[in-house]
Amino acid sequence: MATNPDRTTRANRKVGVIMAGVALAMLGMGFAAVPFYRAFCQATGYAGTTQRATSEQAANVRATGQMITIRFDANVAPGMPWLFRPLQVTQDGHVGERKLAMFYAKNTSDHAVVGRAVFNVTPEQTGIYFHKIQCFCFNNQRLEPGQEVRMPVIYYVDPAILTDPNANRIPEITLSYTFLPAANAAG
Hints:
Layout: H1 5-44, E1 51-52, H2 55-59, E2 67-76, E3 82-86, E4 90-94, E5 99-107, E6 113-122, E7 130-135, E8 141-143, E9 148-157, E10 172-181
Parallel strand pairs: 1-7, 2-10
Antiparallel strand pairs: 2-4, 3-5, 5-9, 6-8, 6-10, 7-9
C-alpha cells in the first residue's frame, strides 16, 4: 500500500506547528513563572516571604498579651563592599505590637554602590504573619563612598498567628536580610 507524499508532508507540518506552539507556550510560562511565584509567596507567606502592610492597616491591629522574640540577621553578597548589621540582635515585644528595628550599613569602597535587600523570615510558616509597614528593603539603597546610614524597619506580628496550630507556639522569629548589588537583586 503506497502512502500519499502530500498527506505525509501535511501531517509532518501539522506536528511541527503544534510542537513549535508547545515550545513557545513553555517559554512563555518560564518567563511568567517568576512573577507568579513572587505573587504566590507574597500572598501565602511561602518560603518565609513577609507581608507588607500600610500604616492604616497596622492602625487596626491590637497588641496581645503574648510575647514573641524577633531575631535579626544581616548579610552582604560576596564581593559587595558594604558593612551591614542589625543595631539590635533581638527584640522582644507583644504579638500585634508595632516595633522599630534599626540596621547599619556602610559603603567601604571608593565609589557609589547601589544595593537591594532580599529578605525572609524563619520559621517559614511565620512569613504570612510577619508584616512590614516600612522597610529599606522596599527600594534600592545607594551609598556614596564611605557613607554610613541607619535604616529602619517598622513591623508587627499579626495576632492571627495565635490561632494557627502550626505557628502559635513559636517563641522566636528570625528576620534575615541579604544585600546584593542592585543589578543582581531579585524584585
